Amino acid sequence: MDRWRDTGEIPGPVMVWTPEQTGAFLDHAAAHEPDLYPLLHLIAYRGLRRGEAVGLCDADTHLDLAELAITQQITVSGRVVQRKPPKSETGNRVVALDPATVAVLGSCRTRRPPNRDGGLFFAREDGQAWHPDSVSRRFRQLVADGGLPPVRLHDLRHGAATLALAAGVDLKVIQATLGHSTLALTANTYISVLPQLAQVAAEAVAAIIPRN
After folding, report:
1. What is the Cα gyration radius of the chain?
2. What is the DSSP letter of 117?
3. pLDDT tens-digit profile of 4-51?
4. Which of 66, 121, 144, 163 fits as disulfide partner to 56, beta carbons 3.0 to 4.6 Å?
């Protein structure tokens, strides 16, 4: 953090925010980009891929059951925007929602404009679908305006996995939530160890060693 503030040098290609930084970003987004905030909240809390969030179907969002289903994604190839199946077979999944996320999505559904673009849950002010690249650009601007370390939008997905692990969620449950095909992919690629979690682990190890 100090080096980044002093030099502007980005420490690494993949980074995650602390819980405090994640909360600060979401508060900033809610205040300054209220139309985009629910989508960013969902990625940060539940680890959806960008295309999965942009392509979320209204019919697959069951707030009364506190869950949603991932059945498609919206991707960009060159200048072509297209709807596709999820990235893998395990990408077709049901994602449980916490009460705070249910409340955010419920408010979004109540005040959003009529969606004229194929029944998507998230829509711009004109009712059209979000362009994935536009979401990334606005995310980067929010990060810069909020004075936060410059992580990528995809790093919110990494962060969601890390925060789940820190909260004591079983690694197999995190794998299913992210839609990974193997547990190794979850463990090796998406989990960063927060300093708080490392400290807890150190204390746990010390506690089982008998000493006079």
Report:
1. 18
2. S
3. 888 888 877 778 888 889 999 999 999 999 999 999 999 999 999 999
4. 121
Task: Tell me how far apart the terminal alpha carbons of the chain are, to the nearest angstrom.
Answer: 41
Q: Which pair of structure tokens corresponds to residue 27?
A: 């508060």
Using the CB atoms, write b or e for 69-106: b if 16+ within 10 Å: ebbbbbbeeeeeeeeeebbeebbebebebeeebbebbe
Q: What is the pTM of this model?
A: 0.84
Question: What CA–CA distance (Å, rounded) separates 72 from 41?
Answer: 19
CA 145 to chain centre: 19
> What CA–CA distance (Å, rounded) separates 24 from 44?
12
Tokens of 93: 């999944």
Helix (H, G, I), strand (E, B) or coil at 62: strand
Identify whether the C-beta of residue 42 lies closer than 8 Å to the C-beta of residue 48.
Answer: yes
Q: Which residue, among 17, 25, 101, has the nearest Cα to 56 in the 3D structure?
A: 101
Amino acid at 129: A
| DSSP character string of 3-48 | HHHHH-----SS----HHHHHHHHHHHHHH-TTTHHHHHHHHHH--
Angle at 196 between CA 67 and CA 18, to 5 degrees: 60
Task: Decide the pairing of beta strands 93-96 and 67-70.
Answer: antiparallel
φ, ψ (nearest 5 deg) of residue 37: -55, -45
